[in-house]
């Protein structure tokens, strides 16, 4: 399996700038004259709030938070911050998973065991099925468990517990009124360049087929903190998928106090009028880069929506946007077949009011229907050129 | 309620809780790599068999009569075992170097220190038997017939790698070798399936199934035990107990750390996994057991990994440097066999040095060949190779620059 791959991930996620300046043309470098697929500059992308004012301008934040201080955090720190707040404000919150007491392989749970005690933050043996099942039991008895699956690729032994226990508990418990709703299952997902078969998958679509679950993916530290707190406090079981490449790469100003961001609510990150791009998690940065180039090159205006909650998702925001622009591209890393894009496309064409407004077919830019190959990950998951290319195709239709 | 199991802050070295001597000594089987002795003079000929006595502490049994404490070997075989272990170690060291040079990317788990397990097993089985193991698989892939260049090539992501460069460290396959598996414990029920096929086909082969002490707690391991016993499958389950599942010591993850008793209704055998001769004797006995249609066994190879769990784990935060140093200097499987070979005058020190040098040169040549291999070509037929359903492949692939754009057809 897997790895307390701390240092290699740290290296992988840090995106050393020197790498693409080097003249050597190996697989892990970018050529100096590349137009599109240059490394994302997380230090300047408008998707991250680089100043305190910028962060606090978010209208979704409560009043007191908007008047409070912010702190620079990366994704794993903001997740740790949310977990720490959850532990501090609610005695029934418990955190467990493989190696979480040591801080977890991605450092999200650092210092939590020391601060809140090893009876509240503890390691489990390597058994994902039991980790989730154990969480279902805790949730049913009134606790508020946060289970960590070390990599999303390892969740499958727990699939039965998630689908048949966690998701169905409330429905089957009838008049007893118990549920597994207080359970949150966190897992790092997505590619980092060389994870191969079992360390780079994005299985979110599998969970979107299960009524009873919520599936959430944050795009940034600020979003992650608010969404994770909502997820933990939500009375539905939540699958919280963290794009692991962002753990260290995405750094922004995050409000210090506790706040929640709404679940099942998409966010229009950038308004536009000619085309809508819908994405979530890491690919949203590629979309932003492609949009910037397309707007410069083609003189168009493109709307970017972060879906945030993948299931049950915010149809209203998406449909409204498509009614306005008449064109939509859905971008995700997970493979294209039966993915989130398929569900969005079907929903759009089923809605008469939106269907008649379509100027071009709903387009999906997603991973190809293959397993993640070791050195070919780049060719499988959507990059800036593929998004840019689709923008042109959809606009030229 | 969990306090005892988990109240072991990371800063606190293991040694502080358990006296150093006890932490090794509490495993009743010896981990002395040079504990066997001679019962007769070593013959002149390389191929004339002679008897070797294993230490009384080589095995620990559960509901099982112990294997014979003598094993028949030849001089040629002892030298081969030595050479094999040296080659595995040299290969792992080469992988370590390539990783540090950033030529190998992604995940890489090395078996330095555990060579006696892979080599001992191979010397007890035939090519018709099956082996399936966890992610720490390079040594097994080599012993099962993979070449060093194909293994290193795989790590480097090259087309001529053992899995076309698509899998990397954890995903290696060969005839009679069903991988390398990246998911902890997932290989165990698969191994039971392999064993069923042997039984169904009526051959006398066994399925050698390996997993770590961490994986022992996965539910599917117990599910596989039940099926194997229920249907009397020729399965030799084997826990490679290197004391740590990633950074968590066995005692902090497992309610019962005597993994050979984990089969409950399946007889178990704990083996000195640092002594290649003990491993061979145990697996040979296990093969006779399954061939006699007595069903499965649960083996436990008591071993030790010198390095961290993976390349990104220094391996020193959850155990003391002294512990690693002690195992390296006093229990090393290669040094142990070397000492026996010299004590028994199987061959001379010069001859062994020659074997060392040959292994080193061979590995160096193979690594050079692997480094010279091409990356897989960026074309659709390769990207979609072995994918059953066609249809999502692109018409073109954009390069990093326009001159790299590639159009299919």
Blueprint of the fold:
The complex is a heterodimer of chains A (397) and B (409).
Chain A: H1 6-14, H2 18-21, H3 52-56, H4 63-66, E1 70-74, H5 75-89, E2 93-97, H6 112-116, E3 121-123, H7 128-140, E4 144-148, H8 159-166, H9 169-173, E5 184-189, H10 204-207, E6 214-216, H11 221-233, E7 238-243, H12 246-249, E8 251-255, E9 267-270, E10 275-279, H13 283-298, E11 302-306, E12 309-311, H14 315-325, E13 328-335, H15 340-350, H16 352-355, E14 363-367, H17 377-380, H18 384-396
Parallel strand pairs in A: 2-3, 2-4, 4-5, 5-7, 6-7, 10-11, 10-13, 13-14
Antiparallel strand pairs in A: 1-8, 6-12, 9-11
Helix pairs in contact in A: 5-11, 7-8, 13-18
Chain B: H1 3-6, H2 14-17, H3 20-25, E1 37-38, E2 50-53, E3 59-62, E4 70-73, H4 75-100, H5 115-122, E5 130-132, H6 138-143, H7 148-155, H8 187-201, E6 207-212, H9 219-230, E7 235-241, E8 244-245, E9 248-249, H10 250-253, E10 268-272, H11 276-291, E11 297-302, H12 321-330, H13 333-343, H14 349-372, H15 380-383, E12 396-397, E13 406-407
Helix pairs in contact in B: 4-5, 4-13, 4-14, 5-11, 7-14, 8-9
Domain Dehydrogenase E1 component (chain B): 84-378
Catalytic activity (chain B): N(6)-[(R)-lipoyl]-L-lysyl-[protein] + pyruvate + H(+) = N(6)-[(R)-S(8)-acetyldihydrolipoyl]-L-lysyl-[protein] + CO2
Keywords (chain B): Oxidoreductase, Pyruvate, Thiamine pyrophosphate
Plain-language structure description:
The complex is a heterodimer of chains A (397) and B (409). With 397 residues, chain A is α/β, with parallel strands linked by helices. Helix content of chain A is 37%, strand content 17%. Chain A contains 18 helices and 14 strands. Chain A has helices at residues 6-14, 18-21, 52-56, 63-66, 75-89, 112-116, 128-140, 159-166, 169-173, 204-207, 221-233, 246-249, 283-298, 315-325, 340-350, 352-355, 377-380, 384-396, and strands at 70-74, 93-97, 121-123, 144-148, 184-189, 214-216, 238-243, 251-255, 267-270, 275-279, 302-306, 309-311, 328-335, 363-367. A 7-stranded mixed β-sheet of chain A has the order 3-2-4-5-7-6-12, with helices on both faces. In chain A, strands 9-11-10-13-14 form a 5-stranded mixed β-sheet, with helices on both faces. In chain A, strands 1-8 form a two-stranded antiparallel sheet. In chain A, α5 runs parallel beside α11, α7 packs parallel to α8 and α13 (283-298) crosses α18 (384-396). Mean pLDDT of chain A is 91; it is low at 1-28. In chain B, α4 crosses α5, α4 (75-100) runs antiparallel to α13 and α5 (115-122) packs across α11 (276-291). Chain B is built from 15 helices and 13 strands. Chain B is globular, with a radius of gyration of 22 Å. With 409 residues, chain B is an alpha/beta fold. Chain A: It comes from Bionectria ochroleuca (Gliocladium roseum). Chain A: Keywords: Oxidoreductase. Chain A: Its EC number is 1.2.4.4. Chain A: It catalyses: N(6)-[(R)-lipoyl]-L-lysyl-[protein] + 3-methyl-2-oxobutanoate + H(+) = N(6)-[(R)-S(8)-2-methylpropanoyldihydrolipoyl]-L-lysyl-[protein] + CO2. Chain A: It is an enzyme of class 1 (oxidoreductase). Chain B: The pyruvate dehydrogenase complex catalyzes the overall conversion of pyruvate to acetyl-CoA and CO(2).
């Amino acid at each position: 399996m897997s790895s307390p791959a701390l240092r290699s991930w740290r290296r992988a996620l840090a995106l050393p700038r020197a790498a693409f300046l080097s003249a050597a043309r190996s697989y892990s470098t970018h050529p100096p004259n590349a137009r599109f697929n240059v490394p994302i500059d997380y230090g300047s992308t408008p998707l991250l709030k680089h100043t305190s004012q910028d962060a606090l301008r978010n209208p979704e934040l409560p009043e007191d938070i908007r008047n409070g201080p912010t702190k620079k955090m990366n994704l794993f720190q903001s997740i740790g911050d949310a977990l720490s707040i959850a532990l501090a404000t609610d005695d029934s919150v418990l955190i467990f998973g493989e190696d979480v007491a040591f801080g977890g392989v991605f450092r999200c749970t650092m210092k939590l065991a020391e601060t809140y005690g090893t009876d509240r933050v503890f390691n489990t043996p390597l058994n994902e099925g039991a980790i989730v099942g154990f969480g279902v039991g805790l949730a049913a008895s009134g606790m508020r468990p946060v289970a960590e699956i070390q990599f999303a690729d390892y969740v499958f032994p727990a699939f039965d517990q998630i689908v048949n226990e966690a998701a169905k508990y409330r429905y089957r418990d009838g008049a007893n009124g118990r549920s597994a709703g207080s359970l949150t299952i966190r897992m790092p997902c997505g590619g980092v360049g060389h994870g191969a078969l079992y360390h780079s998958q994005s299985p979110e679509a599998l969970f979107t087929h299960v009524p009873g679950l919520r599936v959430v993916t944050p795009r940034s530290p600020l979003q992650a903190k608010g969404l994770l707190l909502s997820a933990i406090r939500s009375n539905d079981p939540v699958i919280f998928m963290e794009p692991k490449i962002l753990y260290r790469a995405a750094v922004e100003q995050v409000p210090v106090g506790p706040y929640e961001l709404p679940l099942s609510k998409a966010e229009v990150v950038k308004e536009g009028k000619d085309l809508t791009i819908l994405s979530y998690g890491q690919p949203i940065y590629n979309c932003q880069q492609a949009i910037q180039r397309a707007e410069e090159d083609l003189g168009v205006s493109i709307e970017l929506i972060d879906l945030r909650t993948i299931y049950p998702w915010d149809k209203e925001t998406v449909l409204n946007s498509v009614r306005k622009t008449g064109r939509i591209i859905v971008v995700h890393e997970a493979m294209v077949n039966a993915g989130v894009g398929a569900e969005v496309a079907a929903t759009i064409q089923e809605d008469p009011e939106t269907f008649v407004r379509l100027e071009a077919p709903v387009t999906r830019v997603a991973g190809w229907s293959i397993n993640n190959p070791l050195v070919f990950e780049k060719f499988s998951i959507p990059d800036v050129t593929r998004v840019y290319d689709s923008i042109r195709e959809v606009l030229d239709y | 309620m969990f306090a005892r199991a988990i109240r072991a802050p990371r800063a606190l070295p293991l040694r502080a809780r358990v006296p150093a001597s006890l932490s090794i000594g509490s495993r009743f089987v010896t981990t002395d790599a040079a504990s066997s002795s001679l019962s007769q003079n070593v013959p002149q000929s390389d191929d004339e068999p002679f008897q070797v006595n294993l230490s009384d502490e080589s095995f620990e049994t559960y509901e099982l009569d112990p294997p014979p404490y003598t094993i028949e070997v030849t001089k040629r075989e002892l030298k081969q075992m030595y050479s094999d272990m040296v080659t595995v170690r040299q290969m792992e060291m080469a992988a370590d170097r390539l990783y540090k040079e950033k030529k190998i990317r992604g995940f890489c788990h090395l078996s330095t220190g555990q060579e006696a397990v892979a080599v001992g097993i191979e010397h007890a089985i035939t090519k018709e038997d099956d082996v399936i193991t966890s992610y720490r698989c390079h040594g097994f892939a080599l012993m099962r017939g993979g070449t060093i260049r194909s293994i290193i090539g795989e790590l480097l992501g090259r087309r001529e790698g053992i899995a076309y460069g698509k899998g990397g460290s954890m995903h290696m396959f060969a005839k009679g070798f069903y991988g390398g598996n990246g998911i902890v414990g997932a290989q165990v029920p698969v191994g039971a399936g392999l064993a069923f096929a042997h039984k169904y086909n009526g051959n006398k082969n066994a399925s050698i199934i390996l997993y770590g002490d961490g994986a022992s707690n996965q539910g599917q391991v117990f599910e596989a035990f039940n099926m194997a016993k229920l249907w009397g499958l020729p399965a030799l389950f084997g826990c490679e107990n290197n004391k740590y599942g990633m950074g968590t010591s066995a005692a902090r993850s497992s309610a019962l750390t005597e993994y050979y008793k984990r089969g409950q209704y399946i007889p178990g055998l704990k083996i000195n996994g640092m002594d290649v001769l003990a491993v061979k004797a145990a697996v040979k006995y296990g093969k006779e057991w399954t061939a006699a249609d007595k069903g499965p066994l649960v083996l436990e190879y008591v071993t030790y990994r010198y390095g961290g769990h993976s390349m990104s784990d220094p391996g020193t935060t959850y155990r003391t440097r002294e512990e690693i140093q002690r195992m390296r200097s006093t229990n090393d499987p290669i040094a142990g066999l070397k000492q026996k070979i010299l004590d028994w005058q199987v061959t001379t020190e010069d001859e062994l040095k020659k074997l060392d040098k040959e292994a080193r040169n061979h590995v160096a040549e193979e690594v050079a060949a692997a480094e010279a291999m091409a990356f897989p070509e960026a074309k659709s037929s390769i990207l979609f190779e072995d994918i059953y359903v066609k249809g999502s492949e692109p018409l073109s692939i954009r390069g990093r620059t326009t001159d790299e754009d590639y159009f299919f057809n």
